[in-house]
Design goal:
Helix 1 (13-26) crosses helix 2 (38-46). Strands 1, 2, 3, 4, 5, 6, 7 and 8 form an 8-stranded mixed sheet that branches. It contains 4 helices and 8 strands, in the order E-H-H-E-E-E-H-E-H-E-E-E. It has helices at 13-26, 38-46, 95-109, 125-133; strands at 3-7, 50-56, 62-70, 79-86, 114-121, 137-138, 142-147, 153-162. Helix content is 29%, strand content 34%. The longest helix is centred in the middle third of the chain and has 15 residues, at 95-109. The radius of gyration is 15 Å and the shape is globular. The protein is α+β, with helices and mostly antiparallel strands.
Length: 163
C-alpha cells in the first residue's frame, strides 16, 4: 500500500480520534481505558512532542498515526516514548513499519537520544517482530504487567532503540 507519513493537521483529528479509540476499545495494546472525545482528543494530540499520520496516497484517507513524547523528565528527558495506531482495515500492510521508521527519525530530530517502549504486550507478536527487525532491544519481561480488556493479565516487554 502506498502511504505518505506527514505531520498531523487539525482537520485530521476526527479520523485520528476514531483510529486511536479503536485501539483503546480493543483493550489489548494501549494502557488507556478512556476514549477520546473531540475536545480531549484535540488536547491530547496537541500536547505531544510530535504526531504524524499515514495518509493513503490514493484516497487521501488517514489510515494510521503515531504520537511521540518524552518518556520522563530531567536527567532522563532525553528518552522518548511513542504509540502507534493503525486502522483495523489497514493492518497487515506494513504501515506500522513506516510509522516506526519515521518516528525514529523524528525522535532524533526533536533532540531525543533513545526511543523506549515501556509496555509492549508479550502477545503482540507482530509489533514485537517489527521492533526487533528495526533494531530495538528487549530489556526484559514484566510478569503480568498489562491487564487485558477481559480482565486477565499478560506479560509486557520493554524495548529501546538508540537514536
Amino acid at each position: 500500500m502506498n502511504v505518505s507519513i506527514r505531520k498531523y493537521r487539525e482537520k485530521d483529528l476526527p479520523e485520528m480520534i476514531k483510529i486511536w479509540n479503536e485501539i483503546v476499545e480493543e483493550g489489548i495494546a494501549f494502557p488507556q481505558e478512556d476514549l477520546l472525545t473531540e475536545k480531549s482528543g484535540a488536547q491530547f494530540f496537541s500536547e505531544q512532542t510530535y504526531c504524524a499520520v499515514a495518509e493513503d496516497c490514493t484516497s487521501k484517507n488517514i489510515c494510521a498515526l503515531y504520537i511521540l513524547h518524552p518518556n520522563n523528565v530531567g536527567r532522563c528527558g532525553h528518552i522518548c516514548n511513542a504509540s502507534y495506531a493503525v486502522d483495523k482495515n489497514f493492518r497487515g500492510l506494513h504501515i506500522g513499519e513506516k510509522l516506526v521508521s519515521d518516528c525514529l527519525v523524528q525522535g532524533k530530530k526533536h533532540g531525543f537520544g533513545v526511543l523506549q517502549f515501556n509496555a509492549v504486550v508479550a502477545t503482540n507478536i507482530h509489533a514485537r517482530h517489527l521492533y526487533e527487525r528495526l533494531g530495538f532491544i528487549q530489556l526484559g519481561t514484566i510478569k503480568n504487567g498489562f491487564r487485558m480488556k477481559d480482565g486477565h493479565y499478560e506479560d509486557i516487554c520493554p524495548y529501546y532503540h538508540e537514536l
